[in-house]
Amino acid sequence: MPLIVVLMLICVISLITIGINTTNKENKQIAEIETKAKEIHDYTITNGVSGSQDISTGEVRVHNSSGSDILYNEWRRFLATLNWDNIKSFTFTGRYGIFNEADAFKDMGTLTTINGLDLLLVNSDGVFKEMFKNCRNLKEVDLSAINLSSNFDGGSQAGCFFGCDSLTDVYTPTSGRWNAVDLPNGGWYNVDDENDNNIYTSFGRGTFLDKGSVHLRKLVNYDIEYNLDGGSVEGNPDTYNALSGNISLKDPTKEGYTFIGWTGSNGTTPETTVTIKCRETTGDLSYKANYSVNSYTLTIAPNGGSTTDELSHTIEYGSTKTIANPTKTGYNFVRWDVEGEGSSISGNTFTMGSEDAKITAVWEAADVEYKVKHYTQNLDGTYSLADTETHTAKTDSNTAGPRKEYTGFNTPEEKSATIAADGSTVIEYYYTRKSYTVSLTSGTGISGTSGGGRYTYGADVEVSATLKENTTQYTYGWSKWTGSGVNES
Fold it and tell me: Which of 57, 291, 323, 372 could form a disulfide with 401 if both were Cys (CB 3.0 to 4.6 A apart)?
């Protein structure tokens, strides 16, 4: 006796929404189809089972109003009447049963979807092994209603999806004794259980015990592209798939800017918190970092000088401001010393960096004038200005004023002064008169002298001499003063 297997499949949502049924809604849909001049071919498969093919959409519909099984030869005869180059989907309504049909959809290269298949009858384990073979455009198969009561040994179902390179979704049988069924195109994952992070390459008996039908989906790696707009970030992945968990994008940084959020795959409004829920997301993603420019404070320090600028300014990162050179009496402006990351100044143009900045004036001492006044002593002890000289020296330098030599006057000790920036420095020297000794001696015929002593330079000195008394032998008279000069003391 042949082995009879009953496969129950629950209707899935059809990817083709135009139906041909006997309800008012379906009649309206049929009318719309006719209005659009779509080419539809109708067929009678067997008693109570009808079929149709819409050439314009590639949809094949099978409706069973009788509950009868479709025999192998009846199904084959129906398939032979179809335009195979145009088959994109099968939609079944009512009971669908095929007896002993091993390869009901084999080699339908344009088929993409099978919807509503609710009963498949086979009489041996071998008849199912090539059921969908070479349906290279088939994307989704729902086997959730299949309930296998027999044991298919020998891995006979392993290749039922052979050549289904476009397959992305499979709903596994609810129960039954399946040997391993290979899944094409690498790894697959369990859509229904977010805690199941296993990667599946096949399913079979015991794979999903007590879980009923499981929705398996092809695991696809997608790219994540970032436009950081000059910023940088570490830790954001470049790819993801359904098993990557929830990915929270890390914030990038950009010198001189504040990150205000991502735009792109999350929308056009910048968001600082972006979480990619990988199980709910498909397709390549792209994100652009958005920033607002920062403003910082510039402080101007004239360093003892003066400036026509305000001493505090608020400037955006990367923006420039013209800075006037400061002035300071007695000094030459050399440059600005700049503090603050990334800030700089070239000539009179300041460029703001990425933090508060300060510029401090650097000065060098200029040559300024100072005066040296020379005072000589009068005979009465007071002093009179003899000379005034103008010299130059560096501002704030400790400078010794040059002295002069005056005949009859003592040269004072050298004096120094700190040179004022405004040229007001005066160094004064006071020259005292020298003192000299007048010594008188009595020559021939002189009995005595007077007026000798100590005198200052320039003083009037009166000296006198007394002649001796004349004698019978000598008569005395005044001749002149002679001397050897003045002895300094």
Answer: 372
pLDDT digits (tens, 9 = 90+) for 62-92: 777 776 666 667 777 777 777 777 777 777 7
E strand or H helix at 148, and its extent?
strand 147-151
Q: Examine the pLDDT at 324 and tell me if it is beyond 70.
A: yes
Q: How far is residue 140's CA from residue 16's CA, in Å, rounded to a whole number?
A: 13
Q: Which residues have C-beta within 8 Å of that of residue 244, sequence separation ≥ 6?
A: 237, 276, 278
CA 214 and chain centroid, separation: 44
- Decide: 160 and 128 in contact? Cβ < 8 Å: yes
The pTM (predicted TM-score) of the whole model is 0.63
- For residue 155, count other CB atoms closer than 10 A to its CB: 16
Q: If residue 288 lies in a helix (H) or strand (E), which one and from where to where?
A: strand 285-293
Share of the chain above pLDDT 90, in %: 49
So what's the pLDDT on residue 116?
58
CA distances, 131 to each of 38, 113, 128, 160 (Å)? 30, 14, 5, 5
Answer yes or no: are the C-beta atoms of 359 and 336 closer than 8 Å.
yes
**Sheet-wide strand order for 426-433:** 383-394, 367-377, 426-433, 409-410
Name 403's Cβ contacts closer than 8 Å, sequence gap at least 6: 374, 411, 412, 414, 429
Q: Is the pLDDT higher at 1 or at 354?
A: 354
Model pLDDT, residue 112: 75
Phi, psi angle pair for 90, to nearest 5°: -115, 130
- Compute the chain's Rg from CA coordinates: 59
